[in-house]
Amino acid sequence: MTHTALYRRFRPDNFDDVVGQDALVRTLKGQIISGRINHAYLFCGPRGIGKTTVARILAKSINCKSPENGNACGKCSACAALNNQNNFDIIEIDAASNNGVDNIRDLRENIKFMPAAGRYRVYIIDEVHMLSTNAFNALLKTLEEPPAHIVFIMATTEPDKLPVTVLSRCQRFDFNRVKAADISMLLKKVASEAGIKIDSKAVESISRASEGGVRDALSLLDQSSAFSEGEITQEHVYAILGSANRLMYFALADSILTQDTPRALSGFAKMLDEGCNTLSVARDLMGHFRDLFIAKNVKNITETLSIDDVMADRLKKQAANASEGVLIKCIDLFSSLESDLRYASSPRVFIELAIAKACRTESDASYANILERVERLEATLKNGIPVTSQIEETTQTDKKKDDSSVKRANAPEEKKESSKEVYPDEYIPLPELEEQEYFPYADEKPREEIPAKEKKEKKSNEERQQTIDIPPDEIKEKPTEKKVDKKVEPADEKQVTEFKKAWKTATEKLKQQKKMSIATAMKKAVPKSLNGDVFTVIYDANLTGLDRLEDRANMRIISETLAGILGKTVTIEIERKVLDDTEKGFLDDLSKFPKDLISKN
Known about the structure:
The protein is 55% helix and 8% strand. 30% of the residues are buried. It contains 32 helices and eight strands. The strands form two sheets. It has a five-stranded parallel β-sheet, with helices on one face. It has a three-stranded mixed β-sheet with strand order 6-7-8.
């Protein structure tokens, strides 16, 4: 037996079966009951919400000899004749393939024929916006004053493309997207009649994924029934959509709200490894932050979002620890991704960049960021905390973020404390989510290598702390150790000369690579000495640009460039001092720099 698609098999036959268009259906039924049939109708709205279906029902109802409450009776001779697909009283025209002026001329010649079974000959023109300009001009006079037995019903998804002269000659009916609750009821009804087993969570997922389109919902139900051997579950729907489990979006949002970039990126990578589609992830992530925004501002979110009480409670708990500014920023970031991802050669990079931006709410001066800071200050005032301490805390946030990777490697227990600096209340993971099962944590990330300079500072701080912790009696009894200066082997002059040449070569190479800020900073540094693989350079304390040279990313680029020239890895240490005349001789290009790029004064 040939399989018939569910959306065709369960297409409504009367107005009472139409879902989600109550006001529109009531108006059409009123016209049929009163006998006030218009000569031209225009049905507008998104795809798959019943425009063509309602046009067919209307065509049958106005031709029925004894309609019942606006619906065709299905018993009279007219209804029997119209149920035959070869009837001559209901003519459907696809304007996408019959959009020329010659097709409209043929239509004008045929409208003079009287109906065969009913009272009207009805022309249903689907996708009418595809007609050419000449075709519209040829249709205008006929559309304005057709014969009494002719009714035009035109359907389109893009009414703005129709000429105003056509729009003014029709009664316009705008179809709305169907509510998720209505689609859920329809899916349960269809599944019951078709013998399909499906759980309530799967129905909810299909309803949300259809975005108000009945045809899309029924098609997805049809796919799911073919995909699963038994009962359709939520996991089956996620697999077909290429989407992730809803718990993973809770965990990813948790990472973004606590500004845990490593965990967020590793979790997104896990989503892709499990076969999730990048476009679906971006759309669903935007939808999740939109749900959080609704949960923060609307009291009864179960009806607004068409979700159960358990999901509503989870959304409320997660939204309670997020400011409106952050939620607005996240919605804006991920909503702009959909158009970019359709034509992107590397869509994964776009989403990773958006996630990284969402995790750094303090780094820009946008409206959303300012709104978040104001809300945090208001919360601080309500809690009775001095505003000055909060402002000092905010100004230091960027600096703390730059050192966050080192702190994470040295002291993982400080992670919760840093999240408190961003939000007034500590974020509490949602109950029963078991996020670690679905989502990797940042603790799995390998420890970052600490530069030699920071290791030395850390060691000196530890020694100082140990000295403070020793009781006074033990300090007196402990014999004083004499400092013995270690004899440092003098650096090979040939090696120093070689490295000076390599330093200049690396500077020119980075300049050719358009890394001008790094090259400019390197030109102000003077190579001093070489001890094994550690090379020391001097930087004049009166010159600007030292921060660019000390930047970890820039230092890595310089080290890699020098390694390619020298054939070995070199660690660079920077010594700050005022250069003498001999050392300034190395800066042969210093006179070419603008003054504001040389001296701090």
